[in-house]
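A reminder from the course coordinator: this example appears on the midterm review sheet, so study it carefully.

Given structure:
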């Protein structure tokens, strides 16, 4: 399982955190491009929530978006904060859902409990970033094997 990147989008569609884990696997984008992508995803998620054909209570919008070269998983919190994880196409919801939940718990522990952090603002908390990196690396051990296989041409 390879995790390419994590985005956190606030309830108004603003990108408050962006971190690339698999350096060199995604195209290099400017900060402005990331902001636009987050805003577009937020809008598409809102449209998907309203267009859901079967919706008992609240529809959660886009949970997984599959493309040829990646999968995008989204976990939306009760406060409309979206944790978006971009992974390799082989990842499954069964693998990613617990990871997204644990990332949300780290966010609650290290960002929300930080007295200097203002909610809905860009996240600049070094302990959060360190713990996040540890969590992703803990689950991303397959990445080294992935690189070796790619170099062999398999």
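Designed residues:
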């Amino acid at each position: 399982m390879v995790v390419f990147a994590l985005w956190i989008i606030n309830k108004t569609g603003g990108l408050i955190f962006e971190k690339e884990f698999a350096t060199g696997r995604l195209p290099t984008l400017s900060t402005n491009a990331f902001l636009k992508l987050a805003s577009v995803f937020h809008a598409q998620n809102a449209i998907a929530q309203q267009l859901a054909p079967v919706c008992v209570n609240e529809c959660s919008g886009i949970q997984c978006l599959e493309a040829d070269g990646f999968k995008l998983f989204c976990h939306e919190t009760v406060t409309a904060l979206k944790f978006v994880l971009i992974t390799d196409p082989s990842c499954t919801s069964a693998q990613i859902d617990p990871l997204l939940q644990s990332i949300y718990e780290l966010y609650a522990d290290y960002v929300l409990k930080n007295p200097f952090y203002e909610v809905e603002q860009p996240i600049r908390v070094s302990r959060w970033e360190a713990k996040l990196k540890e969590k992703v690396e803990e689950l991303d051990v397959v990445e080294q094997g992935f690189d070796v296989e790619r170099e062999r041409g398999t």
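Residues 30 and 97 are 28 Å apart (CA to CA). DSSP finds four helices and five strands in the chain.
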